[in-house]
Design brief:
- The protein has 451 residues and is an alpha+beta fold.
- It folds into 3 domains: 135 residues, Beta-Lactamase, CATH 3.30.450; 146 residues, Orthogonal Bundle (Helix Hairpins); 149 residues, Heat Shock Protein 90.
- It is built from 11 helices and 12 strands.
- The chain has a 5-stranded antiparallel sheet with strand order 2-1-5-4-3. The chain has a 5-stranded mixed sheet with strand order 7-9-10-12-11, covered by helices on one side.
- Helix 1 runs antiparallel to helix 4.
- The structure holds adenosine-5'-triphosphate and magnesium ion.
- The site of adenosine-5'-triphosphate (ATP) has 23 residues, from helix 8 and helix 11.
Length: 451
Amino acid sequence: MLNIFYQSLFNDYIDEIKINLLTQGSILSNQISKDYDNLEKEAVFNYVSEYVKEMSLKLDSRILILNKEKEVVIDSHDVLKGFIIDKLREIDIALTGASNANLYNIKDVGKTMYVSVPITNKDSNVLGSIFISKNADDIFVSINSTMKKVILISLVGMLITGLVSFIISDVLSRPIERMTEAVRSITMGDFRKKIRITSTDEISNLGNAFNLMSTRLYQVDEQRAKFVANVSHELRTPLTSIKIISETLLASKKDIPKEVVTDFLQDIDSEVDRLNKIIDSLLYLVDMEKKELELELKLTYVNYLLRNVIKRLNPIAEKKNIKIHLIERDRIQVSLDQDKIKQAIINILGNAIKFTPENGDIYVQIYSSPKDSLTIEIEDTGIGIPENDIKYIFDRFYRVDESRARNSGGTGLGLSISQQIINLHQGQIYIQSKVDVGTKFTIVLPKNMGV
Ligand SMILES: Nc1ncnc2c1ncn2[C@@H]1O[C@H](COP(=O)(O)OP(=O)(O)OP(=O)(O)O)[C@@H](O)[C@H]1O
Ligand SMILES: [Mg+2]
């Protein structure tokens, strides 16, 4: 690259010298042709000689004036006068009438430019020739200094370009590198990984989105781990009971009375029922979590659905002499998934019966509420839920009093199933409760589901 530039610079310089010398040679030739015939006269000769010397100084070169026989008539350096010079191609060409110039590299002298111009009369007859020789070595000094400047400017330019592109790429690539590293950590299972955000541009927007994603992943992962731990625990408890009973029976040396065996078997039977209940509930939950799960919407007379549920649970309530009062403030028909909503209400009403002491009352209300929705309230006069437990009440496996609830057969999955069903219907469920006073669940469902 630099070489090409050097060559072109060199050619330009040489061309310039060549043109300059040829032009000056022509001017000199014009001047001399006028006086050529009178050169024998001393005054004319002296005058022309002076002129040639001046020109030679001006051009920093040696100038010879030769006649047609190639004999030197005038030499700017006063040495070669009278010598015949017949070995120079440039002079031969000039004597044929053509100006010409060539560059030579002469040993011990250096780069030298030879220029020869014919001297002609008015009729264009060649009278003689002018020969100019000029040392061209000094042009290398100029070329070299120009080249030095070019190289310096190029280097500085390259340095600045490099520096700027380094800074830009650093600014751009550092946050991306950080992000890549964070993605890698997440891939390895470290969901807590966050990206430090330092600016407010698009890259930091991406960083923010990433951080939100990692927070969500972390939560989901924690929930998953908690869920698995809970499931194992819940399944192990009945299994442990069964194991203890069967081991006791097997280890017994004496004959065990039939009633005791029956008692043990009943315990095993109820533990197996409990295991079944947990597994059924879990499968139900998993089923609902499938995204593709579609609700089977059917136009439903909700009052009738409530009556139906109460009718089904009344026998259990009656055992505790609990009265269920249904208050139908409005008659409401909406599209909903009957089986699922029924299940959701059974869970809540079942709890109300379960957690209300004997002779208590339960109030079920239905009415139209604002924003095109309907409300179902289920209020009991039971044991209530302590304030600190309320926020966990919809969590899977959560029971206020674990041992008591477990003894009563509770899995702690009922309310989370109910909540999921209501959410699938784009509805809401709320809870209000006071210990020893009672608990009220409020379900709000949109009326235009599926319209
Ligand atoms: N009406 C209520 N009164 C008092 N406590 C309640 C009431 N409803 C729910 N709870 C508390 O909330 C816990 C969770 O209820 P949830 O229905 O999810 O589980 P569960 O009733 O224990 O089990 P399952 O519904 O599977 O039989 C219960 O164990 C109980 O402690
Ligand atoms: Mg329940």
